[in-house]
TrEMBL record:
Gene Ontology biological-process annotations: GPI anchor biosynthetic process
Alphabetical UniProt keywords: Membrane, Transmembrane, Transmembrane helix
Designated name of the protein: Endonuclease/exonuclease/phosphatase domain-containing protein
Segments traversing the membrane: 323-349, 398-428
A GO-annotated cellular component: membrane
Residue ranges annotated for the Endonuclease/exonuclease/phosphatase domain, each copy included: 23-252
Molecular-function annotations in GO: catalytic activity
Species whose genome carries this gene: Capitella teleta
Length: 458
């Protein structure tokens, strides 16, 4: 059984493939997720399960609507929630709406309760959570969750998720263990109603039970480096931990998906060019690029927050004019590619004809270039006969280059392609700069690691 969570770890298609790869690699039976996006037609968890057919059971619950940034013209994911995938049958499920307590975090929080039937030890009750980022609102979240478990009285219990834990604020997690009950606990000082937890059966931190040091799972991007341990799994005393592991190193992700990351950014810039040509106005990124980056043409690039951001139609590198150039560049590329293929075929056909003639005439003189097939004089023959043969061809009237001798046509086309590449690099220089300005955090599938543990009955 395992737990996986992460900020935006399902937001990009690339991350879905990386997440699926990690899950298959881990061999976990149960996976839980936070910040899963959905709308009327799509759900990221359903899309992920299509890559993992062995996980036949799924549960998902919406927590709250997604806040849309001001000025964003793109209609994107509308809701966010938490979910679970399982190899074993989900017997029952329910959603607990956690009481909203006054504080800076306005997001509504939920707990997803799921009973899963295993061959051994049988039914295990899972509670999937994503607590508030505010310390004292976390205390309120824990009050509701633990009070609910006091009435559930499940034999085997696992509470897991993104607890948004801070290294200097362990109060909410000390509530799991009645043996460490402390009236000076900041949660208890804030809310005396938590006294009932003295009589709650204790839950233990699975990572601590494994005996492994460290355990930090969250990186404060853009400087990768694990700084805290918000992702945790707590188990009841009748469950034991046989092992624990952290997965999701960004170096492996970068080596597998660097090309795909760049290609995705190219496609995004082209899409925004088209949007600008269609008259769209506003912000082209659906997500916040953070304090060290800016949104330009649908991608995040290095910059000082929003100081370098550009709104459509004021982005020069993805304007309507640039889209016209892009369409023209595609037409020219197709034309030159067809011309090159035509010339190469003409070279092959000419050489084939010459080979047949050489075999039929043992005394044929090939001239000083006869030792090299690409120097065959026939490849550079005068175009007069060719013009007479094709003078009625509409295609040759439209595109006279086709009347050139085969080898000359190939060489001219190669030179034109070199010129084409130089012009494209000049015209789209700023757009290419946006594409290549990949932020360090884009080389990580998430700013959280995946935590997995092996659980068995005591």
């Amino acid at each position: 059984m395992s737990h996986s969570s992460g900020q935006d770890n399902l937001l990009l298609i690339l991350n879905q493939y990386e997440t699926a790869f990690k899950i298959r690699e881990s061999g976990c039976d149960v996976i839980t997720f936070q910040e899963v996006r959905s709308d009327e037609d799509r759900n990221q968890l359903h899309e992920l399960r299509s890559l993992l057919p062995q996980y036949k059971w799924l549960s998902f619950a919406v927590a709250h609507d997604v806040d849309i940034m001001d000025g964003v013209y793109i209609r994107h994911w509308q809701r966010e929630g938490i979910g679970i995938l399982s190899r074993y049958p989900i017997e029952s499920q329910s959603v607990q709406r956690l009481t909203y307590t006054k504080g800076p975090d306005s997001n509504r929080r939920i707990a997803l309760h799921v009973n899963i039937a295993f061959p051994d030890p049988g039914i295990i009750h899972f509670v999937i959570v994503h607590l508030s980022y505010d310390r004292y609102q976390q205390c309120g979240n824990m009050h509701d969750i633990l009070q609910s478990e006091q009435t559930q009285k499940s034999e085997y219990l696992v509470i897991l998720g993104d607890f948004n834990a801070y290294p200097d604020f362990e109060g909410p997690f000390q509530l799991f263990n009645s043996s460490s009950w402390d009236s000076n606990n900041p949660c208890i000082r804030k809310n005396r109603r938590l006294n009932f937890l003295k009589h709650l059966r204790p839950l233990s931190d699975a990572w601590r039970l494994s005996g492994i040091k460290g355990g930090n799972t969250f990186s404060n991007m853009p400087a990768p480096g694990m700084v805290s341990r918000p992702d945790r799994i707590f188990v009841s005393a009748n469950l034991a931990i046989a092992g624990a592991e952290l997965m999701g190193d960004g170096h492996a992700y970068k080596s597998r998906f660097l090309y795909h990351i760049l290609w995705h950014r190219v496609g995004r810039v082209i899409d925004v060019m088209r949007d600008s040509w269609l008259g769209q106005r506003g912000r082209s990124c659906v997500h916040d690029c953070g304090p060290h980056a800016s949104c330009r043409c649908g991608v995040c690039v290095g910059g000082n927050g929003d100081q370098n951001v550009c709104m459509l139609p004021d982005c020069a590198e993805c304007s309507a004019v640039q889209y016209n150039f892009y369409c023209l560049a595609i037409i020219v590329l197709i034309t030159l590619s067809v011309q090159l293929i035509y010339g190469a075929l003409q070279v092959l056909l000419t050489l084939n004809d010459q080979s047949k003639k050489n075999r039929s005439s043992a005394e044929k003189e090939t001239g000083i270039f006869g030792s090299c097939c690409l120097c065959d004089p026939e490849l550079y023959r005068s175009i007069n006969a060719r013009i007479r043969r094709h003078r009625r061809s509409l295609l040759c009237r439209i595109w006279p280059f086709l009347l050139l001798p085969p080898m000359v046509l190939v060489m001219v086309t190669v030179l034109l392609l070199c010129l084409y590449v130089a012009i494209v690099m000049f015209v789209f220089k700023d757009a290419f700069d946006d594409v290549s300005s990949v932020l360090p955090e884009e080389f990580f599938p998430s700013d959280h690691l995946m935590l997995s543990v092996l659980i068995h009955k005591q």
